[in-house]
Design a protein that fits this description.
Blueprint: H1 9-27, E1 32-37, H2 44-54, E2 60-65, H3 66-69, H4 73-84, H5 96-111, E3 117-122, H6 124-128, H7 134-145, E4 150-156, H8 167-170, E5 176-179, H9 186-196, H10 204-215, H11 223-230, H12 247-252, H13 256-272, H14 279-300, H15 319-331, E6 335-338, E7 341-344, H16 348-357, H17 363-370
Parallel strand pairs: 1-4, 1-5, 2-3, 3-4
Antiparallel strand pairs: 6-7
Length: 376
């Protein structure tokens, strides 16, 4: 399989622009912040990954996800500290001011060695919807007050994400907003697939499938578009685009919360024998199971606090955030909404395989869904 370049020409130009901006900021010993806007699956994460790969300063990378860490600010601070590699057991019961103090001290120590930090805020708009935007304010303030380069990169599907910022936060934001364009035509999408697959052939059937997809006025989180960016195992003997080949890769790209909702959906199917449920049904199941797990942990005095343990820890995500995750499942076509309700479009085997490989699925969540995600 070819591994040359997985981005469109326009996306590569964005990478170059971001790198120039970061380097200019580093030379002036100032922090840098930017927002990367684009539909789900448009290549935002691929662009950020490429930027990090090409940075010559060997940065410390902190990845915060709105769907996981915006349920409360303390969770976001704890994940920040954890990914900075500091804190230890003192993080477990630390207050928000204490967590901020630990983070600031770690970054200050890094400044002595000219360490650069890249903080990625995925689903930036969710952080911006938190009351008073306290976490964002502290993070931007920390970046401005540091003697070392801190790069804040937010990614969002909302074109108005920057407009959500309160005045005090926006005053600390660089106002640099970059938009990821979707592939313009069949040739550009086909080029993406060909770059990732030596065995790809430009056939009439393949081009027609791409053309049909481009006609659909939806976000780019579809399986075919993900295939273009992530690649398929195409060979000279089997050069055709097959959607099923990349289903597992799509599932591996889901957040832990989205996986938890799929498990909740499956639990309902197993218990009630019906395969059509709406969001309210699934959220009620999710909340019930998570609350039960929280009670179990309280009895055994278990207190795990890190990003991968965001689900199954008794910290129930709000209905608003869960509904966003549900919408993204629909956008990714893992769920499909029909006249009679919503149903899964992927097999239980696919879900089980993804759970086994997904980095965000901890032991608790795996056990939670194990008996319900058994392939038929």
């Amino acid at each position: 399989m070819a591994t040359a370049n997985r981005l469109t020409k326009a996306a590569n130009e964005l990478v170059d622009e971001i790198l120039l901006y970061i380097e200019t900021s580093r030379r002036s010993e100032s922090s840098s912040s930017l927002l990367l806007i684009g539909p789900r699956g448009s290549g935002k994460s691929a662009i950020v990954k490429k930027v990090i790969e090409r940075l010559e300063c060997n940065p410390v990378v902190v990845h915060l996800r709105g769907l996981l860490q915006s349920n409360d600010d303390r969770q976001a601070y704890a994940s920040l500290v954890h990914q900075l590699g500091v804190g230890g057991t003192q993080v477990l019961n630390a207050t928000i001011p204490r967590l901020f103090e630990i983070s600031a001290k770690a970054i200050s120590e890094g400044a002595k060695n000219s360490q650069t930090y890249v903080v990625i805020l995925e689903d930036f708009e969710i952080f911006a919807l938190r009351p008073k935007q306290a976490f964002l304010y502290s993070l931007f303030n920390l970046a401005q007050g540091s003697d070392v380069g801190i790069v804040l990169i937010g990614t969002s599907i909302r074109i108005d994400a920057a407009d959500l910022l309160e005045k005090r936060v926006r005053s600390r934001f660089s106002e640099r907003v970059l938009v990821v364009p979707r592939p313009a035509d069949v040739d550009e999408v086909e080029s993406l697939v060909a770059q990732n697959n030596d065995g790809y052939r430009s056939t009439k059937a393949n081009r027609q499938r791409i053309a049909d997809q481009l006609k659909i006025d939806r976000v780019m989180g579809t399986i075919l578009m993900r295939a273009a960016y992530d690649g398929q195992d195409l060979t000279a003997g089997s050069p055709y685009l097959v959607l099923g080949d990349v289903v597992e890769e799509v599932l591996l790209g889901l957040s832990t919360l989205e996986i938890a909702l799929l498990i909740s959906y499956r639990r309902l199917v197993m218990r009630k024998g019906i395969d059509n449920y709406n969001f309210s049904n699934v959220y009620e199941e999710y909340a019930s199971m998570n609350a039960g797990e929280g009670r179990r942990r309280a009895k055994t005095n278990v207190n795990l606090l890190h990003e991968g343990d965001a689900l199954g820890s008794g910290g129930i995500v709000s209905k608003r955030l869960a509904h966003k995750a549900w919408t993204q499942l629909l956008d990714s076509e893992v769920l499909e909404c029909g006249a009679e309700g919503t149903h899964l479009t992927v097999t239980l085997h696919d879900i089980k395989a993804a759970m086994d490989r997904h980095e965000g699925v901890n032991a608790t969540l795996r056990a939670w869904g194990g008996s319900f995600i058994t392939p038929d």
